[in-house]
Amino acid sequence: MRCWPTRSGHHLFTVTVPQLCRLALRLPELLPAPLPLLARHRSHSVSLSQLQVASLLANAFLCTFPRRNSARRVRRFLSPAELPDWSASEARLPALSCHSEGLIEDQLGSLQVDFANKFVGGGVLGDGCVQEEIRFLINPELIVARLFTEVLDATECLVVTGCERFSQFEGYADTFKWTAKATDPSPLDEFGRRSTQVVALDAVHFTQRPL
């Protein structure tokens, strides 16, 4: 910490860290019961307030959770027997609009895809810094899903509703850097959540599996 800028360091240790500790200590009050696990091969959901998410993130930052080896968040599951036979479908495709500019996270009112690792969040807490990790960094409430979401199967996805964006950025991978705080322009829904839905699904290679 010797090379930490004096002004930033003072704010970190007098404001940020004490607030993190206060949030962490409130966890037994905010979440008196254990979080349910979003297990594989089941469709179920978990609902959390922003304050509950903040307390969970504070505890994660302070490393208070025991290590395991292995917003509303909804896990969707489709059994192999329910998979449609697209080659036999006679349904017409709806109108498709393609855009060469813009970012997924800037598309208000759209279902925003996170091209995820089968382990939700990928390398966001390690050395990853591509599409999924960047999304989890600018919407850090997404990180909490890692606490209770099992590995995704090829026919499963995770739907996260209400995560707020807090950061602006530029670059990608090695050139990625934070640029400024963000004010999320997404309107609030009837439950007071941000009208943002992110669907995390593991990208599947189809090069050897023609449609």
From TrEMBL:
The keyword Hydrolase applies. Its EC number is 3.2.1.143. Residues 84-208 form the PARG catalytic Macro domain. Residues 10-72 form the PARG helical domain. The active site is at residues 114, 132-133. GO terms for molecular function: poly(ADP-ribose) glycohydrolase activity. InterPro entries: PARG_cat_C (IPR046372), PARG_helical (IPR048362), Poly_GlycHdrlase (IPR007724). GO terms for cellular component: cytoplasm; nucleus. GO terms for biological process: ATP generation from poly-ADP-D-ribose; carbohydrate metabolic process; nucleotide-sugar metabolic process; regulation of DNA repair. The keyword Cell cycle does not apply. Substrate binds at residues 117, 131, 172. Belongs to the poly(ADP-ribose) glycohydrolase family. PANTHER family: POLY ADP-RIBOSE GLYCOHYDROLASE (PTHR12837), POLY(ADP-RIBOSE) GLYCOHYDROLASE (PTHR12837:SF15). This is poly(ADP-ribose) glycohydrolase. It comes from Amphibalanus amphitrite (Striped barnacle). The gene is Parg.
